[in-house]
From TrEMBL:
PANTHER family: PHOSPHOENOLPYRUVATE CARBOXYLASE
Coiled coil (residue ranges): none
Name under which the protein is recorded: Phosphoenolpyruvate carboxylase
This protein's UniProt keywords: Carbon dioxide fixation, Lyase, Magnesium, Pyruvate
Gene behind the chain: ppc
Role description: Forms oxaloacetate, a four-carbon dicarboxylic acid source for the tricarboxylic acid cycle.
Pfam families: PEPcase
Organism field: Nocardia coubleae
Swiss-Prot/TrEMBL GO biological process terms: carbon fixation; oxaloacetate metabolic process; tricarboxylic acid cycle
Subunit description: Homotetramer.
The keyword Cytoplasm appears for this protein: no
Lineage: Bacteria, Bacillati, Actinomycetota, Actinomycetes, Mycobacteriales
InterPro entries: PEP_COase, PEP_COase_bac/pln-type, PEP_COase_Lys_AS, PEPCASE_His_AS, Pyrv/PenolPyrv_kinase-like_dom
Residues at the catalytic site: H149, K585
GO cellular component: cytosol
Gene Ontology MF: a single term: phosphoenolpyruvate carboxylase activity
Length: 923
């Protein structure tokens, strides 16, 4: 049986191996033709030796010995070659995954978990009450938020060429040798591989925010504009068919967001102008797509009034169509669509001060709201269906209706974010200028809350037109003024949230509210009325201490009458954001994950007692050390009551490209978000029952032990920061030109002030992956001791509890990508031998301990026993990492030894790019 399974697996992976050999062969031919046989032969020798290292046929030093001292001008094509080998192997793996999914469907096997089909089966089996479902899904929302943390290291050109090769490889698989087009397809693939080889891998200049805005909008062109409305329509239809007697999903469940251009926490380049640019470019994209679709609909809805009868509403629309009554005189739908296009053109011109593509120069009245556009499109839809032409209505017209309903005039909600320290400084200045209080910083927390609450009740602004402000205050108020303009122009959904980084108190929340009031966004109401704000105030709890105190902070805020009134005006909806990155950097992997879970439990209890509807916003990164991992599993791992139909999460860096650059992948990933949300909301997925509190207490204990072990290394060991800076390329991460944000919040060498992206990326490059596991092994080993009953208890929880299963599965994934033999080469970069031996010794011991305890608790023989696809991926790709890591260490040694030539620096950045591509996460 076992041998048969091995044979089946080998046969299933045969196309993948063939694709990798084929693409690798073309890349090799390209290198030989353009770099010469000597370079090609060296690359081949290194490649063969790296694979021999993987098969344990030779010592690891074999590759290092081949590469040590390689002239920089020779090292550069080596680095580029192995970077592209990895990229093409990734491409082949993605195709293989699609191939396996198709085979799964073709075989008639049950739908896989994380698909909506599987979720619908589970909901059907649960026999749920429609009224309860409707209540749970009130104001349902699933919102992936593209953030301004772009760790995607591939340039757009490289990314686009990779997409072309993917499409050509799929075409090639459908052809046979001798078929028309077979040879031409290979020729086209060779052409694209040559384009890759001739394209520089790294940027010469750092991305600007304007570039990031354009990159973010690119994904709407690639997939999101078409895929999101289609999923919304499908989910609504599926749920209403199951519970037809209740109103479900009055609004689209899937609504995207963005931080790009609104997130100014630590980013000095976000200005009022940038806010305007981000919102206007998004709106221009939406208007342009709508107008283009209306042009196409005019072509397709050509029904003649001599053959069909139209509704009075459509007839009235047709009367407002073309100025010349002879144009399409007997084709009312074309005339009606022209009238809609004229009004939408006027709307776009009023909002953008220009006409998008396909716009009409017209004096038609603009639409006041997206719903007004939708009303006209719905009238056409109803008339077409009444004529028995539903097939026509279900095509472009349905797609446009769903798009307008989903995206409105704004396309995506632009969140605003700033650090609480900045708010405090600006509020203190405004209060002093107005005479309300001269020394706000000296006040106690209670005094601050009283003062701020009083100011929020008055309509009097703090500033007059002649106020003289510091540069900081002027900039902050300018940004908020721009947000007010955006809301007035595109609607409240255009700027839905104001997020407070490092929120630690009620006054932090009220300070943000006061700034919104000063900008004219928050209306304090009349003396007899209640305050209201179209922008929700969202505290972000980031450190482990802040997560622990988050529920108490929220409860205290809700006790302040003016804040409670604001929440009531928003339908009793309160959003809270949870930070994964800083909590991990603060307390380590296990402690951070448990702090997040505990925070959610406490927040759910506050929501229950206070009567609010809680929405959690998860600030997850791409790597496990920053909350990464499969989104579906992460959603199911939330505590009971934490989802309730609503979920927002950040999508960052290389994860955005991996999930949303291709329609099939985008559909699957967005579907999995909704599937997880529906299951977590409507089903009991935690599965602990009466065992919940004992399980929570056990994790309290484990988290305390894990945090202590992590702190002993990261915070308490003398010289740790020096070790980190010397043994990783963290100093060079800032030169990679992967985003507009500085690498640190402040000009400091402190780990606490370093951003999570370079912290995680540096450990990943050095193959330690420390943020994704350190401390967990000690916690498990100390708690279990020599007691087999305790080990059995953990094993039982692992099997029953999605939280623990997901935490350990993600840990195994990140540890499988670590390699402490390679990490030892990086450790050799540390000058102080005693420091090097001490800290790397601690890392090596904890690494072995963690693997040992993972296997003991889970019962798995290997780290990736539960993830064969990743095991296969590592098997295929990781030999290509060997030379990249070895060359990076060598080049870092040269740079730090005084060779700061441009070629050495470029070589280091190229290795970082290649390793990030190979590891498929970078920060």
């Amino acid at each position: 049986m076992g041998q048969s399974r091995v044979v089946q697996e080998q046969e299933a992976t045969r196309p993948l191996r063939e694709d990798i050999r084929f693409l690798g062969g073309i890349l090799g031919d390209t290198i030989r033709d353009h770099e010469g046989p000597e370079v090609f032969d060296l690359i081949e020798r290194v490649r063969i030796e790296a694979f021999r290292v993987r098969r344990e046929e030779v010592e690891r030093s074999a590759v290092a010995d081949m590469l040590d001292g390689t002239p920089t001008e020779v090292a550069l094509p080596l680095i580029r070659a192995f970077s592209y080998f990895v990229l093409l192997a990734n491409l082949a793996e993605d195709i293989q995954r699609d191939r396996r999914r198709a085979a799964h469907v073709a075989a008639g096997e049950p739908p896989q978990d994380s698909s909506l089909a599987a979720t619908y089966d589970k909901l059907d089996a649960a026999d749920l009450d429609g009224t309860s479902v409707a209540e749970q899904l009130t104001d349902a929302l699933v919102s992936p938020v593209i953030t301004a943390h772009p760790t995607e290291t591939r340039r757009r050109t490289v990314f686009d060429v990779q997409a072309k090769i993917t499409a050509l490889m799929r075409l090639r698989r459908r052809l046979e040798p001798g078929d028309p087009g077979y040879d031409d397809t290979e020729l086209r693939i060779r052409r694209e591989v040559l384009t890759l080889w001739r394209t520089a891998l790294i940027r010469l200049a750092r991305l600007r925010i304007q570039d990031e805005i354009s990159v973010g909008l690119r994904y709407y062109d690639l997939t999101l504009y078409d895929v999101i409305p289609a999923i919304n329509a499908e989910v609504r239809a599926a749920l209403r068919s199951r519970w037809p007697d209740v109103d479900l999903l009055e609004r689209p469940i899937l609504r995207p967001g963005s931080w790009i251009g609104g997130d100014r926490d630590g980013n000095p380049y976000v200005t009022a102008e940038v806010v305007h640019t981000a919102a206007e470019q998004a709106a221009a994209y939406a208007f342009g797509r709508y107008l283009g679709e209306l042009v196409e609909l005019e072509k397709s809805l050509s029904q003649s009034a001599r053959l069909v009868r139209v509704s009075p509403a459509v007839a009235a629309l047709a009367e407002a169509g073309y100025d010349d009554p002879a144009v399409f005189a007997d084709e009312p739908y074309r005339r009606a669509l022209h009238a809609i296009r004229a009004r939408l053109s006027a709307t776009a011109r009023r909002a953008l001060d220009r006409l998008p593509d396909n716009g009409l120069t017209t004096d038609a009245a603009p639409y006041p709201t997206p719903q007004a556009v939708l009303d006209d499109l719905d009238a056409i839809d109803a008339s077409v269906r009444a004529s028995g032409d539903a097939l026509l209505a279900d095509d472009r017209l349905a797609a446009l209706r769903h798009a307008v309903e989903t995206f409105g005039f704004h396309l995506q909600g632009l969140d605003m974010r700033q650090n609480s320290e900045v708010h405090e400084q600006v509020v203190a200045e405004l209060l002093a200028w107005s005479g309300a209080h001269q020394d706000y910083a000296s006040l106690s927390e209670a005094e601050r809350v009283d003062l701020l609450a009083t100011e929020l009740r008055t309509r009097r602004p703090l500033l007059g037109p002649n106020a003289r402000l510091s540069e900081l205050a002027a900039k902050e108020l300018g940004v908020l003024g721009a947000a007010k303009d955006v809301i007035d122009t595109f609607g409240a959904a255009a700027v839905p949230n104001y997020i407070i980084s490092m929120c630690t108190s009620v006054s932090d929340m009220l300070e943000a509210a006061l700034l919104l009031k000063e900008a004219g966004i928050l209306d304090p109401g009349t003396p007899d009325g209640s305050p209201h704000s179209p922008v929700g105030i969202v505290p972000l709890f980031e450190t482990i201490e802040d997560l622990g105190a988050g529920a108490a902070t929220l409860a205290a805020a809700l006790e302040v009458p003016v804040y409670r009134d604001l929440v009531a005006a928003a339908g009793m909806r309160q959003e809270v954001m949870l930070g994964y990155s800083d909590s991990n950097k603060d307390g380590g992997y296990l402690a951070a994950n448990w702090a997040l879970y505990r925070a959610e439990l406490d927040l759910v209890e506050v929501a229950r007692k206070s009567g609010i509807r809680l929405r959690l916003f998860h600030g997850r990164g791409g790597t496990v050390g920053r909350g990464g991992g499969r989104s579906y599993d992460a959603i199911l791992a939330q505590p009971a009551g934490a989802v309730r139909g609503s979920l927002r999460l950040t999508e960052q860096g290389e994860v955005i490209a991996a999930k949303y650059s291709e329609s099939g992948a985008a559909h699957r990933n967005l579907e999995s978000l909704i599937a997880g949300t529906l299951e977590s909301t409507l089903l009991d997925v935690e599965g602990l029952g009466d065992d919940a509190e004992p399980a929570y207490e056990l994790l309290d204990d484990l988290a305390t032990r894990a945090r202590a072990a992590y702190a002993h290394l990261v915070h308490d060991t003398p010289g740790f920061v020096e070790y980190f800076r010397q043994s990783t390329p963290v100093a060079e991460v800032g030169d990679l030109n992967i985003g507009s944000r500085p690498a640190s919040r402040k000009p400091t060498n402190s780990v606490s002030d370093l951003r999570a992206i370079p912290w995680v990326m540096a450990w990943s490059q050095a193959r330690v992956m420390l943020p994704g596991w350190y401390g967990t092994g000690t916690a498990l080993e100390d708690w279990v001791g020599d007691d087999p009953a305790r080990l059995a208890r953990l094993t039982d929880l692992y099997r029953r509890w999605p939280f623990l299963r997901t935490v350990l599965s993600n840990l195994a994934q990140v540890m499988a990508k670590s390699d402490l033999d390679i990490a030892a080469r990086y450790a050799d970069l540390v000058d102080d031998e005693h420091l090097r031996d001490t800290i790397f010794g601690m890392i090596r011991e904890e690494h072995a301990r963690t693997i040992r305890m993972y296997k003991a608790v889970t019962g798995h023989d290997e780290l990736l026993s539960d993830n064969p696809s990743l095991a296969e991926s590592i098997h295929n790709r990781f030999p290509y990492l060997e030379p990249l890591n070895q060359l990076q260490v060598d080049l870092l040694r040269r740079l730090r030894g005084g060779d700061d030539s441009e070629l050495v620096k470029r070589g280091i950045l190229l290795t970082m790019n290649g390793l990030a591509t190979a590891l498929r996460n970078s920060g």
